[in-house]
Specification:
Structural class: alpha+beta
Number of helices: 12
Helix content: 25-40%
Strand order of the largest sheet: 2-1-5-4-3-6-7
Distance between the termini: 54 Å
Radius of gyration: 23 Å
Strand content: 15-25%
Length: about 550
């Protein structure tokens, strides 16, 4: 790459990061401004990814899919992008994730020529539907999950369409937040557009386009070099997502041959009448995410990075459902299991760099009701332990794999909602033992201060996070609900009505261990015991 190409590459990357900062700083909802549940990316005029910020994996892999689908939809509907336009879409079968994730796309024109697109996606904490938070486990079609919006103009001639914003706000339990968050997303795209135009004014359109091609070729070279760490051959993986008494199978075969990767999901369960289906954009995100983590952080993520990865997903399966199958939970839970099953398959191809399973759930919490005469809704996820890997223990209490969000501060929750957080700590002894142990999960407990609906969408109760090469399983997810004087053990996917004083405690899964635990050093064991991370009786050798 020449010097100008390097400068333009880095400028685009930091422009995408700045887009995310603008979105976070402008947002109204705690889910975006505190948890940073949003992502941003920049594309060329053909819709090829140029740069993306280090945001949410399940968002980022789907943004190129969503942009392509949006452009195809607009062509079919005789819609066109003009200077000053911005389009909004959340239909998962177009945008590529679930209804809560609202995507905004803006074209960038330079000297009256379309030269790029800027786009961002943010998780809105409530978009209507059966339950507060909009992820209902008893939804049997997408029509029960909330407001569905095909690509529509949010802006024309740089003027907001207040009727479109009103539709979003009127269909949410938090209308004030929806208005603010949509405008924050627009601000992010304005930021990206401004930075691209600065680059074009300095270097010119020809240099911009030449550097884009250089960038694609550079990333492909790094991809091919990184793939030398993988053994050629065919590798299989199988794992399950849990639905009451039913196990939904995810099956993958990965073939690595002559610098190409072929990913085939034949054998995966057919789509279900439950929101655990994951649209194709989510599945593609999982594949890209896993290879991105294993190939190393020195590879820029763009169109060239994944051009040698070929993905085949049978239509009508839980990883490529047909409309109008419900998909809200597939984005957050099935996506996690997809990552696990790909890692498992690749453990045979690159055992020295593939980790054991993480806690395998985002542990989604959706809460809401009416308080002081106003409707409200709150959404967050809870971290887990990551899997051990060669030379390193797993990480304790962190959002893993397809989510990259932050922790919601307790003060922010208690300031805005009738909830009290009464416990938040590491879950001692939840890690899978091994030469390199898994990370510990977390315990987070809520007390209701008013009447409310409380929904939990988690997993890894029956199928614990796997260890690798002699490492042990991580602890399974555990949920405890106290209503009045009664105490019950909750299912992994449950909606309950709470009264003031009722209590919900979520104990998240730990990561699997890596290698035989008899090879773990005494020093490491004693350090873990001293730090309250493992129980003494669990490490008998």
């Amino acid at each position: 790459m020449n010097f100008n190409s390097i400068i333009i590459r880095n400028s685009l990357y930091y422009a995408s990061e700045e887009m995310g900062i603008a979105l976070r700083n402008s947002a109204y909802s705690p889910n975006i401004k505190e948890r940073m549940d949003h992502s941003a990316a920049i594309f060329d005029s053909e819709g090829r990814l140029l740069a993306q910020a280090e945001h949410i994996p399940v968002h980022l892999g789907s943004l190129p899919v969503g942009l392509k689908n949006t452009l195809d939809f607009m062509q079919r509907e005789s819609m066109e992008f003009r200077k000053g336009d911005m389009v909004v879409v959340n239909n998962p079968y177009i945008a590529g994730t679930h209804l809560n994730d609202v995507t905004l796309i803006r074209p960038v024109f330079f000297e009256d020529e379309l030269v790029a697109f800027v786009a961002n996606k943010a998780h809105h904490s409530d978009i209507g539907g059966r339950v507060p938070g909009s992820i209902s486990m008893d939804a049997e079609s997408i029509f029960e999950e909330g407001l569905i919006v095909n690509p529509v103009y949010l802006m024309r001639d740089n003027e907001f369409r207040e009727d479109v914003i009103s539709i979003f706000s009127a269909n949410s339990r938090n209308p004030y937040e929806r208005k603010g968050d949509l405008r924050a997303q627009a601000a992010a795209n304005f930021t990206g557009e401004r930075r691209i135009l600065e680059i074009l004014r300095k270097y010119g359109l020809m240099e911009f386009r030449n550097s884009s091609q250089d960038l694609f070729e550079y990333s492909l070279r790094l991809f091919l070099d990184g793939m030398k760490r993988f053994r050629e051959g065919s590798y299989k993986g199988e794992d399950y997502i849990e639905l009451d008494g039913e196990d939904i199978r995810l099956s993958v075969n990965i073939e690595i041959r002559e610098g190409n990767v072929y990913v085939d999901y034949n054998g995966t369960s057919t789509q279900v009448r439950s929101p655990l289906n994951a649209v194709l954009g989510v599945t593609v995100s999982g594949v890209h995410y896993v290879f991105r983590t294993l190939l190393g952080e020195n590879i820029p993520v763009n169109y060239g990075t994944f051009s040698r990865i070929h993905i085949q997903v049978p239509e009508g399966t839980v990883l490529n459902p047909t409309f109008p199958s419900p998909v809200a939970g597939g984005n957050v839970e099935t996506s996690q299991r997809n990552a696990d099953v790909i890692y498992l398959a690749l453990s045979g191809a690159a055992p020295d760099i593939v980790p054991a399973a993480s806690g395998g759930s985002m542990n989604n919490v959706m809460v809401g009701g009416v308080h002081s005469g106003r409707t409200w809704a709150f959404y967050e996820t809870i971290g887990v332990g990551t899997g051990g890997r060669k030379g390193m223990d797993g990480i304790d209490g962190i959002h893993a794999n397809m989510t990259n969000t932050m922790n919601t501060p307790i003060e922010e929750i208690e300031k805005n909602y009738p909830l009290m957080i009464v416990k938040y700590e590491f879950r001692e002894g939840s890690s899978g033992m091994g030469e390199f142990r898994g990370g510990n999960g977390l315990i987070r407990a809520y007390r209701a201060l008013d009447k409310m609906t409380f929904t939990i969408l988690s997993d890894r109760m029956r199928h614990r996070p796997y260890g690798l090469f002699g490492g042990e399983y991580g602890a399974s997810t555990d949920i405890i609900i106290r209503k009045g004087k009664s105490k019950i053990r909750g299912r992994s996917k449950i909606t309950v009505e709470l009264m003031p004083g009722d209590y919900v405690e979520i104990r998240t899964a730990g990561g699997g261990g890596y290698g035989d635990k008899s090879r773990r050093s005494i020093e490491r064991i004693m350090e873990d015991i001293e730090n309250g991370l493992i129980k003494k009786g669990k490490v008998q050798r």
